[in-house]
Structures are given as C-alpha cells and as structure tokens.
Amino acid sequence: MNLQNLRYLLSIAETGSMTRSAEQLNMTQPALSRGLAALEEEVGAQLFVRLPKAMRLTVFGRVMVRRAQGIFRQLEDAQHEIRHLQEHEETELSVGSGPVWLTGLLPRAINLTTRDLPGVSISVIGGFERQLAELVRRGQVAFILTELTDDPEFSDLHSEPLASARYAVVARRGHPLERAGTLELPDLLEFPWIMPDKAVNAQKRLDGLFQTEGLTPPVARIRSTSNGFITTYLEQSDALTFAVTPILRGHPSLTELPLSRSLPKRTTGIQRLRDDWLSPAAEKMLEHLRSLTLQADEL
Known about the structure:
7-stranded mixed β-sheet; DNA-binding transcription factor activity; WH_DNA-bd_sf; Arc Repressor Mutant, subunit A; D-Maltodextrin-Binding Protein, domain 2; WH-like_DNA-bd_sf; alpha/beta
C-alpha cells in the first residue's frame, strides 16, 4: 500500500476539503484526487462522501484513518528506537494520569525513574478516562494510568491491571449525615452533589447504584475537572461526591459516609497502544509502578 496515498487520506480527513488538503500538501487537486481514487480502488471501498463543499468520511474511511494513524505511529516509533540505539540520547517521557495516581504512587515512581536515569525529562498530564485515552491514541503520552473497564470504547488499547480501589460517598467532617448513623441511598438525595466533569465511569457507577433500587440518581449541579477545587468545595459546603477512597488521602477534613450497602470497586492500571514501542525510560517507570503497587496497601 502506497504510504503517500495514506498521507493524502489523513490530510483530507483532517481538513474535510480537497482544496485545502492540496494546498497543505503543496500539490494539485487533480493529483490528490488520483491518489485518493487509487487508495479507494486498492481497498475496494469508498472512503469519503463527496459533498459540494466538503469531504465526509464513510464508515470505511474512519477505519482506514484509524489504521493509517497506527501505521505512521509505528514508523515514527521505529525511527525513535533506532535513533535512541544510535545516539543513546537523553530521553523525554510524557505520561498521562488520573487523579488518584497523581497524589499516590506516580510521584514515587517518577523519583525512582529519575534516580535510575538522571538524563530523563518527564512530563505528567492529568485528566480522566476519555481525555487520557485520546492522549495515548494521538501519541502525546507513552502510557496512561487510569481506571480499566470492559467498555468497547477502550478496546483498542492494551490494559494492564495494577490495583483496585473501593468507591465511597465523601463529605466534609461534621456533615449532618456523618452524625446520622448508617445511611440509606434516599438519605443522600437530600443534599447537593459535586462530581468530576470528565469522570464518566464514576458517574455511570453512581447512576447505576441508585437505579438498581428504583431511585432517580442525584444530579450534580456543580462539576469541575479540578480535583483540588472539588475537595475544597466539599470542605466548605454540605455537598457530597462519589469517589474512590484513596482520594481521602491528604484531606483529613473529608470523610467517608457510612452506607447500609456495599459500594463497588474499580480496577486501575496501565493503558497504552497495542504493540507500541516504549522507550527505556517508559519501561523503567512501568517497572517501578508494578513494584510499588505490589508493595503498597493502597494507591
């Protein structure tokens, strides 16, 4: 398969326009059209719907774009690996992480990695499941530390479980519900809620908890992508949130409310592109993360 034609495909998918792609690629539009036609003939499917002023991917086109992106990532990885072997250059490593790892074992793993590899520079990007998955798909991070689920949305990523954590309903110490004894789910509906804006899996679990008992789930009137803001808001209000218990670490002013029923656990660990090359620095950090999770009582 002609790699140049795959580059044409990716450019048209990005711009949505034959004219803009031809300008971007510094070529004539007829030449670009011939390249796309050759690719469509080779795969035996129409990759774009030709609209009067735009090009829209078909379902076959979306498959080809995803595969083409993977091919170019593999080629880029091969170049990086060869260059590293040739030059033994200092390494830059970027990783993505959910909130619990950011304040838990990840800083320790980074400290150990920089001790072993003094020349490495490490960048950490925080976020939630979908945000982090997009980062690793785009090649912006080597791997991510996040919740692992069986959701087909993440089936393109290789997952390695490392630890589990239990969910809890969290409030400030001194909250009216803290003194109310063992609580039932309807008790929780009498107070406002705050939730992480991008924590899709936590929201699904919270909704399911109430729906299985025939109750309408609480609606979070306040949402934020900042874990620091959420904890501060909890400390200063009667709001509740749904989070894993390690989130209480370092926040003595917050507490888990006692419920009459058990709450679900989640599995968390590493996600990365399947068959992706990892730099020695990434491999070293993963080695430390695996070791630390085996030794730790919690994340």
